[in-house]
TrEMBL record:
Identification of the protein by name: Thioredoxin domain-containing protein
Every Thioredoxin domain range: 12-159
Organism: Microscilla marina ATCC 23134
MF GO annotations: antioxidant activity; oxidoreductase activity
UniProt cross-references to InterPro entries, sorted A to Z: AhpC/TSA, Thioredoxin-like_sf, Thioredoxin_domain, Thioredoxin_ResA/DsbE_sf
Length: 159
């Protein structure tokens, strides 16, 4: 019982922001999530996969409005693929083909996915300017990107 209480306290602490785990760039280089510079602006973190049609729809829809989000609120979008090492090339080619101009990484071992309790994709998180998770959403249907923008606007008015 004491062990469960200790674990619970630790779990609550790590949900404030992104846990410190290693992910990969699309080129296969290792990178700590602590190097992602999440403080100072709002951040949208979207977990996705190459085989997930709703994920690709979501990221494409966000890509269309992303320049406006950046101009209005200096929003940063980070897409985290849950594809494994074997499909890294597929993820890289999909990102290039879609011309997505936001940061994209691969969580090929599933460490970040597990640490953030992501069970299904797409799973999207919004972080405040302090890098703390303040909102999350699973699944996608057309128009959800407008909900994300509304959440970001509300956060921006709180300053």
């Amino acid at each position: 019982m004491v062990v469960a209480v200790s674990f619970s306290a630790k779990a609550q602490k790590t949900t404030k922001g992104l846990p410190n785990v290693t992910i990969k760039t699309l080129d296969g280089n290792s990178l700590s999530t602590q190097a992602l510079a999440l403080k100072g602006h709002f951040t949208v973190v979207s977990f996705w996969a190459t085989w997930c049609k709703p994920c690709i729809q979501e990221l494409s829809a966000i890509h269309d409005v992303y320049p406006d989000w950046q101009e209005d609120m200096k929003v940063k979008l980070i897409a985290i693929s849950v594809d494994d090492a074997r499909s890294r090339a597929r993820a890289k080619s999909l990102v290039k083909g879609k011309r997505w101009e936001f940061e994209t990484y691969i969580d090929e071992n599933g460490d970040l996915k597990r640490a953030m309790n992501v069970l299904n994709v797409p799973h999207t998180f919004i972080l405040n300017k302090d890098g703390e998770i303040v909102w999350q959403h699973t699944s996608y249907k057309p128009g959800d990107e407008e909900k994300y923008y509304d959440v970001l606007k509300k956060l921006n008015t709180k300053k």
